[in-house]
Amino acid sequence: MTRICIHCGEEKELESFVKGKGRPQGRKNQCKVCEQEAYRKRRARKSDDYVSRKDLREEETHLRKRGLKKCSTCKVVKSFDEFYNNKAQRDGKGNTCKQCQNASNKSAEEKCLAPKRAEKAKHVKIRKCLLKEGYKNCSKCGKIKKVEAFNKAARNNDGLHAWCRDCQSTINEERYEDIRPKDRPRAIVFTSDKEREDAQREQGRKCHATPVLFETFWRRIPVTDVPSPDENEKLTVICKACKNRFVPTRNAVKNRINAFNNDIRGESNFYCSDKCRDDCPVYRFNPYQSIDPRSKNYVRPSEQAEIRNCQTDHLKQLQCDEQGYNYCERCGDIIDVELHHTQEVKHGNNAVNSAGHLLLCAGCHTLTHDNC
User: Fold this and answer.
1) Residue 292 confidence (pLDDT)
2) Range of 255's domain?
3) 3-state SS, residue 27
4) pTM of the model
């Protein structure tokens, strides 16, 4: 049987290899001749000039105790301050001193950057020659054009932009199309502040008029409103007046939740229409109003006051029917119009002629009585 030696690469008989237990075919990978040559080299290293690894480690330990270290490049013993930090080493310092390391880095940098610097110097020289003749090379399209074809740029040394105007326009159009596609709707231009406020109010009304999801709000709504989902997973409740089920708006749901948490006054019940809201007996009901018969603090007027109120309302209606208007005869206000008696009125159910009465607003009525 033959085998190839991994050291010399020759094919030899199996007996020409050194025996080795656990190796394939019971032989080592090196032949006997290569093994003897390697042994002679190892013996030569152990001569008087050879320093073993153990001795080197002892010397390094002895220097470390004194704060010194031997540079692996210049072979000079220096202090730790002359070495860069290196966490991979035992002493936390690199094997090369700062002077040797800087020299090595500088030489490597010079070797790497020399071609680039030479090429840059060549381009600068060509650029200066072109500028003297009134031309410049566009860095985008690579064409040589006149100086008038470039935009001004104060930040550059030559005071001109690196790209020509044609390339700059092309790039600007591409960026504009990426930012604002053609199918994107344009911004609305308002002619006045009132038009802008109306548009914002309409947008807010649409947002508050949208329905809400059942899973989001049903836990926060009182059980008396019977919240339940519809086929589209929207929230539905029971109307307070007609007891019909409907889908409330977002604004109505938020008001109902705030009223239930005592964040706002009132109850803010759910109503499916304006008619149900107006017909509901509890809508805008104040339980502490003294003039409302439904309130807790209601004070019943005397019999004489009831007759006077009934007569005053009847006279006011007659005055409106005869004169054809329902506003203050002094200031023209249409809010809180009241009936003022210019002559003495006898109590009774029959109304007298309207010539002895005037229609006045609450303010003018108070001033008239103060001046009497």
Assistant:
1) 62
2) 209-279
3) strand
4) 0.30
Q: What is the pLDDT of residues 178-236, one digit of tens each?
A: 665 555 555 666 777 778 778 777 776 666 677 888 888 888 888 888 889 988 888 99
Q: Answer yes or no: do 330 and 252 share one domain.
A: no
Is residue 173 pLDDT above 50, yes or no? yes
pLDDT of residue 289: 58
Cα atoms found within 13 Å of the Cα of residue 263, Cβ hemisphere only: 7
- Residue 275 within a domain: yes
Structure tokens at 249: 């708006």
Contact 340, 360 (CB under 8 A): yes
Question: Does residue 274 share a domain with residue 240?
Answer: yes
In a domain, 353, yes or no: yes
256 and 324 both lie in a single domain: no
- Read off the DSSP letter of residue 186: P
- Residue whose structure tokens are 């050879």: 50
What is the four-CA torsion angle of 20, 25, 30, 31, rounded to 10 degrees?
Answer: 100
* Spatial separation of the C-alpha atoms in residues 315 and 360, rounded to whole Å: 13
| Total of domains in the chain | 3
In a domain, 250, yes or no: yes
Residues 6+ apart with CB under 8 A from 319: 339, 354, 357, 359
Helix (H) or strand (E) holding 363, with range, is helix 362-371
Is residue 339 located within the same domain as residue 265? no
Can you read off the two tokens belonging to residue 127? 């650029």
Distance, C-alpha 54 to centroid of its chain = 63
With respect to residue 71, please indicate whether it lies within any of the assigned structural domains. yes
Q: How far is CA 65 from CA 60, 82, 346, in A?
A: 9, 16, 125
SS (H, E, C) 71-139: CCCCCCEEEHHHEEECCCCCCCEEEEEHHHHHHHHHHHHHHHHHHHHHHHHHHHHHHHHHHHCCEEECC
